[in-house]
TrEMBL record:
It comes from Ramlibacter pinisoli. Its EC number is 4.98.1.1. One of its GO terms (molecular function) is metal ion binding. One of its GO terms (cellular component) is cytoplasm. This is Ferrochelatase.
Length: 367
């Protein structure tokens, strides 16, 4: 048998064919099923990433495979089962829908692009979707992170995976990355409208908690900008909502292990608010653009139970942006800015384009 080639064979190419531009929307990932085996495969990939767990491999890998995966897989699968939908994992359902709506918005705005979505861990993988974009003729690819706030544990891991893929490619396309949009005006506006819509329907709370995914505190001391970008998002959102000081709290959830993580922690914050006499609390999760296990189970279920058990009277979880029309518009505008200079824009009448974008947003809102 001949030795394996170091680089992949390129997809068929016809001389003279027009080059294409691709957009790859990347989210964290999800197991394929809410079963222990599927969750174990997912956690093995996720927790095996050195970007996620910065512990020497000789120490961490035996602990991961010998203790954590055997104990945690079944428990996590039971949690996933409580949020699973007939369509599958909520995170995957919403990310796929966002990619389709983004394709429509960009197309109606006059951009000829190919939009796909991928998961950093699980399926569809980043490598498989980059392969698909190349096979469709993409010579330029914009990698769009679903994480508004940059973190080495998330955003940089996407960059790592794209780089790993590129090392196997003979004809590497032009690559660009959207690493952050934590302070983007459209993103903040979409968050504010989402919260205001909930308040118009259910009334305002006594206190609002903005819960972000946590990371070890040491990452802040080592120079990761995630904590600062979460704080910036919180301040901008609170200002846009006109919140008075003391009426809202920014916290961090999903702590794992015994190390100190970014504080304050979300669940103890909810308990403290209840014990302080706060009757109703609303929780929004600005760092998650799609609802997932961390929002639907950890916040909407566990957080609710903790708040009510501590004496709170009413708990409201405000859903993530998901397929909200204002969010799709913001995502489209972010994408269009980062596509600048690439020949994707089709000549068209500006008024016709504006009307087409409005139709695309109306279609997204109807869904």
């Amino acid at each position: 048998m001949p030795p394996a080639l170091p680089y992949q064979t390129e997809p068929p190419f016809t001389h003279g064919q027009a080059p294409a531009t691709g957009v790859l929307l990347c989210n964290l990932g999800t197991p394929d099923e809410p079963t222990p085996d599927a969750v174990r495969r997912y956690l093995r990939e996720f927790l095996g990433d050195p970007r996620v767990v910065e512990i020497p491999r000789a120490v961490w890998l035996p602990l991961l495979h010998g203790v954590i995966l055997p104990l945690r897989s079944a428990k996590s699968a039971a949690k996933y089962a409580t949020i699973w939908t007939p369509e599958g994992s909520p995170l995957k359902v919403w990310t796929e829908r966002q990619a389709k709506l983004l394709q429509g918005w960009l197309g109606e705005a006059g951009h000829r692009v190919l939009v796909r979505y991928a998961m950093r861990y699980g399926t569809p993988s980043i490598a498989s979707q980059l392969d698909a974009l190349k096979a469709a003729g993409a010579t330029r690819i914009l990698v769009l992170s679903a994480y508004p706030q940059y973190s080495g544990t998330t955003t940089a891991s996407v960059v790592d995976e794209v780089a790993s893929w590129s090392r196997r490619i003979r004809h590497v396309p032009e690559l660009r990355f959207v690493n952050r949009y934590h302070d983007d005006r459209g993103y903040i506006e979409a968050l504010a409208r989402r919260i205001e819509t909930h308040w118009r329907q259910h009334g305002r709370p006594d206190h609002l908690v903005l819960s972000f995914h946590g990371v070890p505190e040491r990452t802040l001391k080592l120079g990761d900008p995630y904590h600062c970008e979460c704080q910036a998002t919180g301040r901008l959102l609170a200002a846009r909502l006109g919140l008075a000081p003391g009426s809202w709290t920014l916290s961090f959830q999903s702590r794992f292990g015994k190390a100190k993580w970014l504080e304050p922690y979300t669940q103890p914050t909810l308990v403290a608010l209840a014990r302080r006499g706060v009757a109703r609390v609303d929780v929004a999760c600005p760092g998650f653009t799609s609802d997932c296990l961390e929002t639907l189970e950890e916040i909407a279920q566990e957080g609710r139970d903790a708040f009510l058990a501590a004496g709170g009277k009413a708990f409201h979880f405000i859903p993530c942006l998901n397929a909200d029309a204002a969010w799709i518009r913001a995502l489209g505008e972010i994408t269009a800015r980062h596509l600048a200079g690439w020949p994707t824009q089709l000549p068209a009448d500006p008024q016709a384009l504006a009307a087409a974008r409005d139709r695309a947003l109306a279609t997204g809102a109807a869904r």
